[in-house]
What we know:
Elements: H1 2-10, H2 21-24, H3 29-35, E1 41-44, H4 50-59, E2 65-71, H5 77-81, H6 95-110, H7 118-128, H8 136-143, E3 149-153, E4 156-160, H9 172-186, E5 191-197, H10 209-232, E6 238-246, H11 247-250, H12 258-261, E7 265-267, H13 272-287, H14 296-303, E8 309-311, E9 317-319, H15 321-326, H16 333-349, H17 357-379, H18 386-396, E10 400-401, H19 403-412, H20 423-432, E11 436-438, E12 463-465
Parallel strand pairs: 1-6, 1-7, 2-5, 5-6
Antiparallel strand pairs: 3-4, 8-9, 10-12, 11-12
Helix pairs in contact: 1-16, 6-9, 6-10, 13-14, 16-17, 18-19
Amino acid sequence: MSRELLKEVAAWKVEAKLEDTSRYFFHVNIVDEITSGSKSYVIGRKGTGKTAITEHIIKDVSFSRFAKKLSFKNFPFQELYDLTNKSFTAPNQYMTLWKYLIYSSVAKLMIKNESIDDSIREKLRSIYEGDVEQSLARSIKRWVSGTFKISILGSGIEASGSNATQKNETSWIERVETLEDLLLQHLDKSEYLIVFDELDEDYRDITDPENYNRYTALLTGLFKAVQDVRSVFGQPYKLFPVVFLRDDIYDLLMDNDRNKWNDLKVPLAWDEAKIKELLAFRISKAHSSTDPTLPFYQAWRMLFSNLPVKYGHKQQKEMKAFDYITRSTQIRPRDYIRYLQACAEEALRDNRTKITPDIVTKIDKSFSNYLRSEIEDEISGFLPNIKSILNLFSIVRKQTLSIAEFEAAYEEEPGAATHERTADFVLAVLFNFSVIGNQPKQNNTHVFRYISPEANFNRKEPIVLHRGLFKSLQII
């Protein structure tokens, strides 16, 4: 059975959309807060499980719960930037667009709801039958086109479908009010969840003022639109738009009403205790999809040998395998899934029945390369030259260094320093993404934001590189 368990863990997927969520989704309280309408903004770092939650929500439907995911992966954002409502000033000019997407998505879900009057469902079907379900961009283009028509005549709906040839004189902006009235008249008491995910597709070179202004205005408009929709469709309606967004992007958004968003915001964060619960669940389900979840230590012993990992000078130090793995991670589910999956693959190649300490230390190198790649992807919007910046640590070859040492290396690197990206700016970004932490005077104490999210960068203390990056940067 141990080999079968290793095979199952080796098949784990880092990408949530590729995984069997019915088997491996670990239920967190946030899910209940979302589906009950208590929370509408889920904010968390890349790799903390946002997409896994969205995949679970859209599959967990019933006769009275309907869900639609609007993914902006590989989306042509320029088409969205052009769809402004010029009656409003920034950032409100995009609220109308987002409301249109929410209302149109709900209207399409109503077609599936047998509790809705048949005549209404048939009219809605004729309106949206031309949509391409796999292409959100093509659907939006159709919804804002001149041949797309929705109007309410008395208690009925007039519609023009995809074959309409007569140009509709009403603008797509006017259709938003029409759809809002339609939903207010005909929406039942079922739950409708509209989920926005993968909104970081156009998050690149954010230090450029034009890119920054249009991107943050678009997303601020989404948050304000969700707030407005929740206000319009209060009780007894159950229309719940939900936004999943990276915390570093959320921190960029500015609005006079931003403090009010806190009522609907929930952070997606993890600690070691919660990670152990997650791993106990996943290992238990890998062992048997039907048996109850085992306590962490029992589940861990099924997969790992009980021997400690030896490290340091002449291998004189010892550490439990979980602790050794944890110090290379940023305590995100994706990190552990990747590490354990790679360990299981290596154990199978070596014809082992369990993951042994030598495998854990061997995988530490490939995991370090993975973590570096993840961080480079995450930070590139702020620092397009992040690869060369990380290479500075390879040149210095020190895990702990003073601010002055980093500044000297940064200034010497050709093309690294720019007017917009000073050493101070770079250090702040690296700290915010937990590439570096502070080294206080106390021994064996490091301050990293992934452990203490409220921490601020202290220029009076030395900086320390995250241990998970050591091997990819040839520090050790």
